Amino acid sequence: MSTAIANWVVSLTSTSLPATVSQAALRSFYNWAGCTVGGAAHPATTIASRTLSRFFGPPTSTLLGCRLDTKVIDAQHAALINGIASHVHDYDDTHLDTIIHPTGPVAAALLSVCETLHRPIPGNDFLLALIAGIEVECKLGLAVWPSHYDVGWHITSTTGSIGAAVAVSKILGLTSEQTAHAIGLAATQVTGLREMFGSHTKSFHPGRAAQNGLLAALLAEEGYTSSLQALEAKRGWVNVSSEEALANLHIQVDSLGKTWETEKNSFKPFPCGIVIHPVIDGCISLHRKHLTSSEEIVSVMLTVHPLVLELTGKKYPRDGLEAKFSVYHGAAVGLLLGKATPAQYEDAVVLDPHLVQLRDRIAAVADPSLRPDECHITLTFENGARLEKHVDHAVGSVHRPMTDAQLQAKFLDQCVPVLGVDRANRASDWCWGLEARDDIRSIHEVL
Amino acid sequence: MSTAIANWVVSLTSTSLPATVSQAALRSFYNWAGCTVGGAAHPATTIASRTLSRFFGPPTSTLLGCRLDTKVIDAQHAALINGIASHVHDYDDTHLDTIIHPTGPVAAALLSVCETLHRPIPGNDFLLALIAGIEVECKLGLAVWPSHYDVGWHITSTTGSIGAAVAVSKILGLTSEQTAHAIGLAATQVTGLREMFGSHTKSFHPGRAAQNGLLAALLAEEGYTSSLQALEAKRGWVNVSSEEALANLHIQVDSLGKTWETEKNSFKPFPCGIVIHPVIDGCISLHRKHLTSSEEIVSVMLTVHPLVLELTGKKYPRDGLEAKFSVYHGAAVGLLLGKATPAQYEDAVVLDPHLVQLRDRIAAVADPSLRPDECHITLTFENGARLEKHVDHAVGSVHRPMTDAQLQAKFLDQCVPVLGVDRANRASDWCWGLEARDDIRSIHEVL
């Protein structure tokens, strides 16, 4: 199977891509770039950058959203740090069938290696490699879903290492055998335990996955050997990290190039676990219609998909990172503030007494009959009145995807504070125009 | 449990160490240094070094056994490459109860970080940190044994990352909480699938584990957070990577500082999977006594512990790396050449027609009643004569440990071809005198 995947990767050409897939990949990259700029100043990113600066090698690759004097570093560290930044606000993309955040590991590795190459990298070659990485990453995620995630693997990084290796192999033009070795070298670095959710290490995962995959492809290019059955062997990646039958892997690999996972990628309107989004969406609409203060609310009852409580059941978040795993915080900011952007996940906001008080009045119950993008909200007021809201499909879900205009507003919301209005608009134009660009290495001039 | 381990690490002092433990740690380091020099010129090491040289940061840390002009590189890459070199001949140490090769990941990370510090590092501080790392590494191995290994994890690197993080935390003087975060950051990087055995990637594992642990401790020192329950949580390291009960973890953590795993470390007389050693030992003794040519042998029957065939059943090895997983090759070189050093695992030797012919005449059967360090060998000759050999405990096992003199002969056998006689002897003296040394950063002058 490793070899079959490698063969598919090598044979993939731009002409075989449906236009909808290229467009979805472009939106994925655009969203990733904005999130990476938006996460550049977060402590998880800056601690990593500060700690590792003593090791930086020759500067070739851009750290997105950084000051000009610290902006170009070696490719391995750029992959790590951009990967961290892209995920740190939990604001990146989601492949809903697997809860993989696919672009982070793949784009961070791919971009950093492109900038080391001594030749122009056309935008469509870049997108092709990005698509190859995302497709393999998500197909592998589907092959090991759900037991891989259930047991405790952070599927974004465990599959992301392999996706990153594939994308880098593609842009380097590796042979099928080299690509298979790269897949093996990436597969053996199984990074990411779900126990880390709520700490800096959660965003370390996609960063390290980018680095793992980059390292894997570079070693394979130079003849480093791994196994050519790394995924399917008895003690290979699928069997070791999941309880799924190998037949699933066969089905997913056979579907490469027939169904496209990149098309199913979705983008988050809110910077937190995607399972909370229906609740936030509903609470924001209730805010707009009815509420300006929490005083009058006696209780809030949320009825949600079971995964919501499993993943985001933190009742008493102590800081912004923990609040991302609190459906209670999501509901509270939606109801009270009417929005949920990174600003509503600042530590000080999370500890605001009004929000703390409102969170205390919110209860949530799981209902397995609900879809993950669905929820019910019931408010009870001091005067005994009740208000109900049913969210059928949350904004940002596949049924209500964010429009390009919404994506652009999100991009600018993250980039303007870092880059200023002019540079942010220029960066937005540059990213939207990626596919037609002659050489994407000019990215360091704009982002 | 992560916190309990961290507390133990922080409280550990040289005065609380039994002398036998310090001596065992010294022998472990000595053996590691020789193996690392011996592996420096192997393709798995040189490919990694050549590939990654484009990323090398400021030079601080020694690559053991390298030419003076390429010898000092940044600490992260030194940890990786020394870790690869130390394991590439499968000639390093073994904690027999877990089959962990404990010193590689821990020493490679620890040595490389010591050389970055702007203060003298006394030899006994170095040994103390090494012991802390090896103890935690092996106790964790015992906690997840055997299911962790059985399912397919290369236990050397999966526990080695954590051991390396502990050793680096100790030498950096991290607090208990920082050490616990380092353990979490290391635990989330679960590197090493057994499927990679027989390829370059097997030795990549301890190298990457060293790097993982080093990175973990450095990030934790700067305030990067992980989980303080990384090992014991529902979706933490033990539950995700094994089927063992958490009670095992408790037992092992409670035994820290009471029983010492470092004392149980053993050293290999032969550069291959340790389970083959009884067969090689027996075959060498048969060679000495009876054989000078394979011509007269009609058949060889090996009766071995079941793990021998599971791990080293490669009947037709194609190169030196595969031969390390061939009990047939081990038996053949023992019988025909009377020795098994790295020279007998060169690719050309593995393909020698006389050895190929003899391997064809060797059969092996598993007998679960045998101990792992035991075997029976039966030779049948053309004239119908039979010769039997029972190996009760292989040389290098805990019952027949290598003496210091044997370790030194092994060290010099590996170092003389690389360093020359004078430097190799000086390096040997330097390593034996480690504990009393004022500053181990002088290592770059000798190794």
TrEMBL record, chains A, B:
SUPFAM superfamilies the UniProt entry points to: 2-methylcitrate dehydratase PrpD
Stored Pfam families: MmgE_PrpD_C, MmgE_PrpD_N
Every MmgE/PrpD N-terminal domain range: 4-244
Domain of life: Eukaryota
Annotated ranges, domain MmgE/PrpD C-terminal: 270-432
Coiled coil location: none
GO molecular function, one term: lyase activity
Homology family: Belongs to the PrpD family.
Protein name per Swiss-Prot or TrEMBL: MmgE/PrpD family protein
Species this protein is from: Penicilliopsis zonata CBS 506.65
